[in-house]
Automatic annotation (TrEMBL):
Residues 246-302, 319-374 form the CBS domain. Signal peptide: none annotated. Keywords: CBS domain, Membrane, Transmembrane, Transmembrane helix. InterPro entries: CBS_dom, CBS_dom_sf, Diverse_CBS-Domain, TM_HPP. It comes from the Bacteria. Gene3D superfamilies: CBS-domain. The keyword Membrane applies. The chain crosses the membrane at residues 26-49, 56-76, 82-110, 146-169. It comes from Pseudomonas denitrificans. This is HPP family protein. It holds the Pfam family TM_HPP.
């Protein structure tokens, strides 16, 4: 039995992890890869001939898998595809000038293409297959040698364009855009959530220590780590919800409230913002102290309007809408980035569309303190 158990452990080490995707995503990716390859190959077949399209079909099919099934990976970004195809074509054409077509030439083209992709940050495995195909591609009589690379690169470019269209239409953002932390104060300081805990430099160092290529962008890795931290914090905080920490005795105003009266309410009750309700008590806007003092609009409008309170104006003219709000069942962990990194001083809390409370930064700090004290006790 111990020998059998050891064999099972060794066999399990060769099995891949269970994919964290759903059958719906499998179907989406399969349909996109099939359609993308079909349209791209068919177009190149019409332009350059079916035999030429068939010659480069292998690299195109492999690229289609990456572009539609793992479009968030570093290997599947547009520059990775186009850059690798250009590298493979250039290397294969140069080798063809000095060496005859053969397996050795193809192996050399593969290695040199890979060596060129690394510093150009365009690593894409099908580019290696394209280098192999390019070595054996023969231009038509009377055509320059570089003409053989034209259909190959055109097919790759067509796949990228189709991936841009299909992935975004099916709500899979492509290409993966870098996430920029909000800079509400226009200073060099990082966002509050990035000042403690894991930082960008820590992620870079961890990736360097792996000493190998990891098919994930630094931004995606950061999102993954921070999401893991939030799930762990949520588990430790139990079931602390917005309804348990919100203020219920609310001071509100209407769109017809004069700015001067709104300012008195803010000062009297020491508030950062006022929710704006219509006649049916629906939340239609929110106004802060800065909204009352600084006119909105273009710089020339603000200059002409001056900085200062216009007593003849109403809140409906300066309020912010639509209003970012949360549900009463929102977990406390989900409130942290909203009240720390997004520059919000308070969040209206809705229940079945009705305003039932407001959560301020002070309310959140108090809840975090109670959770910390409970763990210390």
């Amino acid at each position: 039995m111990p020998a059998l158990t050891g064999w099972r452990h060794r066999a399990a080490a060769y099995l891949p992890d269970i994919p964290h995707t759903r059958p719906r995503e499998w179907l989406r990716a399969s349909l996109g890869a099939s359609l993308g390859f079909l349209l791209s190959a068919a177009t190149c077949g019409l332009l350059f001939g079916s035999s030429v399209a068939l010659h480069f079909a292998g690299p195109w099919a492999a690229s289609a898998v990456l572009l539609f099934a793992v479009s968030s990976g570093a290997l599947a970004q547009p520059w990775s595809v186009i850059g690798s195809y250009l590298c493979a074509s250039l290397v294969a054409l140069l080798i063809g000038l000095f060496l005859p077509a053969g397996i050795a030439s193809a192996a050399l083209a593969l290695g040199l293409s890979l060596l060129l992709m690394y510093p150009l940050r365009c690593l894409h495995p099908p580019g290696g297959a394209l280098a192999f195909c390019m070595v054996f591609a023969s231009p038509l009589p009377g055509e320059p040698a570089w003409m053989a690379s034209l259909p190959a690169i055109s097919g790759g470019l067509g796949l990228v364009l189709l991936a841009l269209l299909f992935n975004n239409l099916t709500r899979m953002p492509y290409p993966r855009r870098r996430s920029l932390a909000p800079d509400n104060h226009q200073t060099q300081d990082p966002a509050p959530g990035a000042r403690v805990g894991i930082q960008a430099a820590d992620l870079d160092q961890a990736l360097d220590e792996l000493e190998g290529f990891v098919d994930i962008t630094r931004d995606d890795l950061e999102r993954l780590v921070r999401s893991t931290e939030r799930h762990a914090l949520r588990r430790s905080m139990g079931e602390t919800r917005a309804r348990e920490m919100m203020s219920r005795d609310l001071i509100c105003a209407s769109p017809e409230t004069p700015l001067s009266h709104a300012l008195r309410l803010l000062v009297k009750h020491h508030l950062k913002a006022l929710p704006i309700l219509d006649e049916e008590r629906r939340l239609v806007g929110i106004v802060s102290l800065i909204d009352l003092l600084v006119p909105r609009g273009a710089w020339w409008k603000r200059l002409l309007g001056g900085i200062g309170l216009r007593r003849d104006r109403l809140l409906g003219e300066v309020m912010t809408r639509p209003v970012l709000h949360v549900d009463a069942d929102t977990h406390a962990v989900e409130l942290i980035p909203l009240l720390s990194d997004h520059g919000l001083h308070c969040l209206p809390v809705l229940e079945r569309g009705e305003l039932v409370g407001v959560i301020t930064q002070t309310d959140l700090i108090a809840a975090l303190e109670r959770d910390l004290l409970s763990h210390l006790g």
